[in-house]
Amino acid sequence: MQLLRQNGYKTYFVTGGGQDFLRAYAEPVYGIPPEQVVGTMNATKFSYDAKGKPILTEEPRLLLNNVGPGKPEGIQLMVGRRPQAAFGNSDGDKEMLEYTQAGGGVRLMMLVHHDDAAREYAYGAQSKVGTFPDSLMAEAAQRGWVVISMQKDWKRIFAWE
């Protein structure tokens, strides 16, 4: 991400996870400020507390499910432009990669395949979390997306290795 930023790109985190959760640590850990995090979010309501102070309260109503087709929707809602590059790691990222590729000019679409059960949690077609089905691998090959195998392509996964 540092290399992208050094070359004039603005980096965003687009996650299926909770937006507020990731915003709490994205900047110190990844160098991404809270306003550049796009995630699943509940609706927010403006009101006043008992002393008349304006407050925002999260409501138990989903505003954006930032998974699958929700990712391009969230990108448009929060960023307002199509990405030049997109990186994913599951079938929940497919539509974001398709949306990125549909833009004009040169685009970069990459998938990280978590396939190294010895060094990290591996997930694939049958996984209950973060599925990477065979159909996603086939679509990546058909569309020319780069697939990075953690098992074959990464010498080190964690900094302490």
Task: Please describe what this structure looks like.
The protein is of the alpha/beta class. It is built from seven helices and six strands; from the N terminus they run H-E-H-H-E-E-H-E-H-E-H-E-H. The strands form two sheets. It has a three-stranded mixed beta sheet with strand order 1-2-3. Strands 4-5-6 form a three-stranded parallel beta sheet. Strand 5, helix 6 (134-143) and strand 6 form a beta-alpha-beta unit.
Total of helices: 7
The number of strands is 6
What structural class is derived from the secondary structure elements?
alpha/beta
Query: Which spans of ≥5 residues are poorly predicted at pLDDT below 50?
Result: none
Number of domains: 2
Shape: globular
**Global Rg:** 18 Å
Order of helices and strands: HEHHEEHEHEHEH
Could you give the distance between the termini?
20 Å
Helix content: 25-40%
Q: Beta-sheet strand percentage?
A: 25-35%
Biggest sheet features: 3 strands, mixed
Would you tell me the overall average pLDDT?
Answer: 94
What strand line-up does the widest sheet have?
1-2-3
Brief digest:
The chain has 161 residues and is an alpha/beta fold. It is built from seven helices and six strands; from the N terminus they run αβααββαβαβαβα.
Characteristic terms for this protein:
161 residues; alpha/beta; three-stranded mixed sheet; three-stranded parallel sheet; 6 strands; globular
Strands, helices and their partners?
Blueprint lengths: L1 H5 L6 E6 H5 L2 H5 L6 E12 L5 E11 L5 H9 L6 E4 L5 H8 L6 E6 L20 H10 L2 E4 H4 L8
Parallel strand pairs: 1-2, 4-5, 5-6
Antiparallel strand pairs: 2-3
